[in-house]
Amino acid sequence: MKLTINNLPVEVPAGTTVLAAAEKAGVRIPTLCHHPDQDVKGVCRVCVVEVEKSRTLQAACAFPVAEGMVVRTNTAAVREARRVIVELMLSRHPKDCLGCARNRRCELQALAEELGVRDVRFTHIEKKHPKDESTPSLVRDPAKCVVCRRCVYTCNEVQAVGALFPAYRGHETVVVPAYDKPLLDIACSLCGQCVHACPVGAITEHDDTDKVWAALADPKTHVVVQTAPAIRATLGEEAGLPPGTLVTGKMVAALRRLGFDRVFDTDFTADLTIMEEGSELIQRLTTGGTLPVITSCSPGWIKFIEHFYPELLPNLSTCKSPQQMFGALAKTYYAKKAGIDPASIFVVSIMPCTAKKFEAARPEMNASGYRDVDVVLTSRELGRMFRESGVDWGRLADEEFDDPLGRSTGAAAIFGATGGVMEAALRTAYELVTKKELKNLDFVAVRGMTKIKEATIDLDGTKINVAVAHGLGNAKELLERIKRGEKTYHFVEIMACPGGCIGGGGQPIKTTNAVREQRIDAIYREDKRMPLRKSHENPAITQIYAEFLGQPLGHKSHELLHTHYTAREKV
To answer: What's the pLDDT at 524?
Structure first.
């Protein structure tokens, strides 16, 4: 189809929208309800344009091109219509930009600036809908909702949870859970993907930075921090660096500038997870245990299966997530080696995930005799702390993690990407089963953004079928296949978030599939640069078993590193 946009000739395939055609021509059309990874909704009308011979303005995101079409995107009528639409939204929106977590990262705020909105000509009447702070993970503020339905699409179509829907009518429409219940009382996985979908501050993470500042200021508290595998490939975005920038050494240095007594790495317990989970897989394969073994690292996925597939709970690995393993060891193994009273140790986790906050608060997560992890911060919260403290990333030299909980391998680093846990487990399981060296460490069949990945791995004559799913909608499809008996799997990895932890609900805004791809590339670069790339070759892992744990699946390991899960109601 040949058309012109602002007198520029454009040629695009039939079925292309005016918005996509304008992008090809280098013409920017503002949007709000539009999202590059979602189906067209066309509800906000911010993207209206003039189409010659059309009686009314048209929404560019939904209007298909036609041969010979003439489009104008910047006429006086178009500009005025867009301003009126944004002013109407602002007339129902709270005026608390300075106190909002999305300040300067808010799409409505950016639109108002772009369109030159300096005054709102309509009477300001805010929505009177109470804030929901019922969960330790997410805060909902329906008064800020612009009813773009992006979170609704994500929750229903991507994650298949169905926790959010538009309710009420007309200008009182707002997005809420079923029966307008608090999030804690419904079958929400707390994955936080709705946060990435939301263009404003209607859904945010529960901010726990004040708790960490208070702990850092207390001279009697020994504050240690652990950083998840995915963080090193995403945290730089909070400092304005391009997606996929690795900041491992600078991140360690920046955390020391904040005042943490020890900077440790969750990658250490990711390696430990492979030892425990790999041993569990081998044990179930050889003793007729429940198969397939399904990974248990992702707390959003765990809450999902507890709500929707409780009959498959016996298939879950009993391993805690690396975050919770670390907390238990920090207040036992580390406390003993350092000669510190565990009661004075305060464990902070830097995670890509909002569901990790819920996981840390689970009543069963206290194997050390104390709450294993005291506070979980998302990447975004840590980014705010860095900005508040004036950390200058450009002046930081790379520094190393502290011992003994700071040594790790490339296998642990790839935990941050979908398929990474599977690949790390296979690297170790192959050598444990065959007693032979694995020459090619790259199991590319389980990598990438394909919705469900399958492979058959030959362990020197023993063939095991594996599957990987990321995003809860894909997980649901895979679980239904398992229930129908369509294929026999031995080992299954499921991550709640699209792309795995690099796309977690606590990661920097804006997280799209294109950004996820860049972050995944960074994770595998991190793996390649590591001197050791197999978990069982980590000398710190060998040491902790020799000094403290005894052996994988042993009594001490079972006590500290394993747990159980509970069926929950669907409503």
So the answer is: 98
